[in-house]
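Q: Protein A?
A:
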Amino acid sequence: MATRDIYTDGFDESAGKTIAATECPECDGDLRTEGGEISCTECGLIVNEYHLDHAAAPLDFPEGPDRERTGAPLTAARHDRGLSTEIGFRVDGKGNRLSSERRTHLGRLRREHTRAKWRSKAERNLGHGCTEIARLVSALDLDRSVREQASVLFRSAQSEDLLRGRSIEGFAAASVYAVCRCTDVVRTLGEVVEGARCSKSAVTNAYRVLNAELDLPAPPQRPREFVAGQVSAIGVPPEIERSAVEVAEAAWEDGVSIGVHPAGFAAACVEVACREQEVKLVQQDLAEAASVSPVTVRTHRDTIEGQREGER
C-alpha cells in the first residue's frame, strides 16, 4: 500500500503554537518558543501563549492503591461534610420521568431517609447551625470562604460544649461575625443582627462566649475600614473618602477613636470631610448607613473638631 501525505487533501486543527511574526513588535528582537509560549529574547515580551496543555501529568492519589475518585470535595459547610445522599422527586438520574408507583415508592424512601438522617441530637443541632450560617452568609453577600470558616468555628464551639442552654441561631450569627472580625471582611454587629433570626443580646452573648473560650484572634476594628462603605451608601464624591480616611487615621494615632463605635466614628469622619469641602449631605442618611443614631454622629463629630482645634 502506497503511503501519502495526509495533509494533501485534508486539514488539521491549528495547534496555536506558531504565529506568522518573526520579530518582536516592541523592540524588533528575535522571538523564541518555549513550552508553547512565544516571547522576545531581548525585552521578554510574551507575544503569544499556548493555553492548552496536552501533556498534563496524571493525578496522583498518595493515600492508597484505590485511584478512583467521585463526587464533590469534602466541605465543612455541611454537617456531614457533603457525604449525604439526596433522593430525587420526579425524574431519575438520566432525566427520565418516573411512574406514579415509582414516585410513591421514592416518597416513602425519602421519608424514612429523613427520619434516619440524624444519628444524634448533636448532629441535628450541627445541621441546623450550618444551615443558618449558609442563610446568613447569603443574606450578607459574603464569600464562600466565610461560610466554611464560620462552620468550622461553630463545630469547635459545639465540641467545647458551649451551645448547652444557648441559642443555636445566636451562635451561628456570632460565628459569622467572629470570622468577619478575624479577617478583612467589614461587617458591623448591627448588620449581622439584622439578618439573624434571634435577638441582639443572643448574638452578643454568643460572641462573647466564643471570644473568651476559644481565644479568637480578633483585632480591634479601625474606623477607616467603614469609610468606603458609608461613602458609597450616601453617594458623595470619591475625594470625600480620601479626606475621611485621613481624618480617621489621625484620630486613631491620637487615641481619640479608641474604645468607641468604629462605624459611628467613621460616619463622623465622613461628615467632617464633607463640611471641609462644602459637600452637602443628610446626617440622617449617614447615620443609617453606619447603623447608629444621628446623636452618635454629632457627638463624635464634635470630638474630632474639638481635637483639631486644640492642635491648632
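Q: Protein B?
A:
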Amino acid sequence: MARRAGTGAEAAAPPWLEPLLATTFFASCTLHGDAARGECNMFCLDCPSAGAFCFYCRSSAHADHRSIQIRRSSYHDVVRVSEVQRALDVSGVQNYVINSARVVFLNERPQPKGTSSSSSGIGGAAKSAAHLCEICSRTLLDPVRFCSLGCKDLAAGHVIAAAKPRRRKGIPRRSPLAS
C-alpha cells in the first residue's frame, strides 16, 4: 500500500523523538552551571538518554555526535528547521520565522484565551479559511496539518511516554491549606 506523499505522519518516528519531546531544557548544567554557556539547551540525537546538556558538555562528551540546539520563543521550546530536518521529516508542521530563522515548536502550545477557530477578526470580519492542527485544534497560519513536532508524532500513533509537566502562571487550583 502506498503512503500519501508529503505528509510524513505515517513514517516511523526516530528513536530519539519521544525523549526529545519529554526533555526539560534550560536548567543550569550541574558541571558547567557557572559558565557563560552553561545552560542545558542541547540534545544529542545519537544518545538521547543523555537528556539536555550544555555547550561545554557537547564539546567534551558529544563532539562527534549529531546534536541540535533548543531555543526559546515565548516560553516554549523550538528548534531550527535547518538543524532538525536533516534527521526528521518536518513537513506538515507549522514553521515560524524567529530572529531570521525558520523554527518549529517541539510540543503543543495552549490556544490563547479568547481565541478559537470561529472567532472573528478585526472589524468583525470572519476568518476566511481557518487552518487547525489535527491534534489540538490550534489555529495555524499556513495550510499545514500540525502545530508542533509533538502533535505530528501523536498523529503518527506514537504515545509520548513521559509527558513533561507544564508550568502555568496564575493562582494554584487548590490551596495548600485546604482540608
